[in-house]
Amino acid sequence: MNFNPECEDLRIGVVGGGSWGTALARLLALKGLCMDWWIFEEEVCRQISEQHENKVFLPSVILPDHLKPSNDLSAVVRDKDLLLIVVPSHVMRTITQQIKPHLAPNTLVVSASKGIENQTQLTMSGVIKETLPQLTDTNLAVLSGPTFASEVARNVPTVVTVAAKDLSSAQRVQRAFATPYFRVYTHDDIIGVELGGAVKNVIAIAAGMVDGIGLGLNTRAALITRGLAEIMRLGQAMGAKPRTFSGSAGLGDLVLTCTGDLSRNHTIGKKIGQGMRLDEILKEMRMVAEGVKTAKSVYNLSRRLGVEMPISHAVYHILYENLSPKEAVGLLMTRDLKNEWDE
């Protein structure tokens, strides 16, 4: 099935073999597009080649026979029209530095990674611009939205947003990924789309804590609402468009991650609310929960920019400074009273 026949000659490389990278590689392969797929782990690459299933990161999903992964990054990157990067945020800089010598001048690079780098507080597009300085505004896009990889891999109807400064670039990505079950909207607000996808993971940890403590639906709804206000404040300080955060990459992704049982960030928060230690939880997980590292980035970034983000700061103090979730709730609820939109 090829939903967009005009994309048949598009040469695509996919970098990343986690759950999201696997789901997107499967989607593109089922469209009949010409693509190569890089996976870091040799055992995962071998398993997919032999058994057509990523049992480590996306179990119970059978992958097309013609979807052949590789451990050769240079071969996957070389001579591509479109390069999709789907790696954890904390390795984005390392991977893109390795990509640099093999990237063709006209390759359109698309980031589907959600996070903010700890050391620099750059979003993923910022990291990519630093490590791949040859890219122009017409050669960079980001893809985000309310997506659980396992549902996309089951062809559950899903809506995402692709943002690029150049509309024609966004439309190229839109056509490449669109299917009858995967609807893609275009946008021009790269930083807004990225912030929505990154900071929502921090708020989702807080939502999980609320559920772990057993505080109820009123509290969760309040937390999502005020969490969105924090994301919007940070976005405004960084030049994002306010309307972006009412769309799929903002409110849509926030609601999904704060309420869905498939959310790793929500799961971590819930276990912390139930009394588990963060280090104990992380030992049990092989897949990355971006909110843990992003909480540190958001804390430092918001302080540097002078942006008030009390929920995000509370998550940071719980994760890294042993503040108890119940104590954090008390501190948040007894802050100075104010107008809801008094910024």
Number of strands: 10
Task: Name the average pLDDT.
Answer: 95
Strand percentage, roughly? 5-15%
Taking the sheet with the most strands, its summary is: 8 strands, mixed
> Residue ranges: pLDDT <50 for 5 or more in a row?
none
- The CATH superfamily of the largest domain bears the name NAD(P)-binding Rossmann-like Domain
Distance between the termini: 50 Å
Number of domains: 2
Short description:
Helices cover 49% and strands 13% of the residues.
Please give a structural write-up.
By secondary structure, this protein is an alpha/beta fold. The chain has 2 domains: 184 residues, NAD(P)-binding Rossmann-like Domain (Rossmann fold, 3-Layer(aba) Sandwich), CATH 3.40.50; 142 residues, N-(1-d-carboxylethyl)-l-norvaline Dehydrogenase, domain 2. Helices cover 49% and strands 13% of the residues. It has 15 helices and 10 strands. The chain has an 8-stranded mixed sheet with strand order 5-2-1-6-7-8-9-10, with helices on both faces. The chain has a two-stranded antiparallel sheet with strand order 3-4. Helix 8 packs parallel to helix 11, helix 8 packs across helix 14 and helix 9 packs antiparallel against helix 10. The model has no long low-confidence stretch (mean pLDDT 95).
